[in-house]
TrEMBL record:
Keyword terms, alphabetized: DNA-binding, Phosphoprotein, Transcription, Transcription regulation, Two-component regulatory system
Domain Response regulatory residue range list: 22-135
Annotated organism of origin: Streptomyces olivochromogenes
Residue ranges, annotated region (Disordered): 1-21
Sites of 4-aspartylphosphate modification: D71
The name this protein goes by in its record: DNA-binding response regulator
Amino acid sequence: MQQPYESAGTGPAPGGPGQSARVLVVDDDPTVAEVVSGYLDRAGYVVDRAADGPAALARAAAHWPDLVVLDLMLPGMDGLEVCRRMRGHGPVPVIMLTARGDEDDRILGLEVGADDYVTKPFSPRELVLRVESVLRRSRPAAGARPLRLAGLAVDPDARRATRNGEDLALTIREFDLLAFFLRNPGRAYSREDLMREVWGWDFGDLSTVTVHVRRLRGKVEEDPGRPRLIQTVWGVGYRFEEPTPREAATPHEEAV
């Protein structure tokens, strides 16, 4: 019988890139919480634990985490509501855990702003790598030049994005995607390209790219249903374009 969780005895050595980061693990299954916390602790993270939504919010209020590993199916208050409430107090990266491989669950987690997801059963080693990846991308990129195009501005050093001077509330993955598009206007990229070039993944569910594109359109487009900036290239993927006045006046098909 396949064991859903590996022994916590062979985790990564301490002193990883996220050594001082604080991670909040929220799961009502004590075995899962203990194993995940053990791996993260040995990887050098400061780990807090909570078994339900109210406890997670209280723990976050006492010590704001650098990242949250959050189970979707929690008693009383589910992970989606916990994510919404935490994001209401401030930006925080979230990796969602789900016991089901159903695509709707994964997409729902991404729709509320989760930066990544892992489906149970999973390898704790893989989860630690996901935590490292999300935290690495959440840090400012020292020396990166600001980007400006089509009324949008991205400052990688400050991890700040604006639209017509107004701040945009972007998740880490949305920020990275927008910065990539602004660096590479006019070129079409497949979803596989975006997954690899933007987030460094060589494998994964391509629907995550679709969800992030849809969410980003909702924040940067005048009419997300008729996008002028992030355009669908049928049979290929997506392309970022600064629309000309003529293009802006021409109806587009509804985006997918």
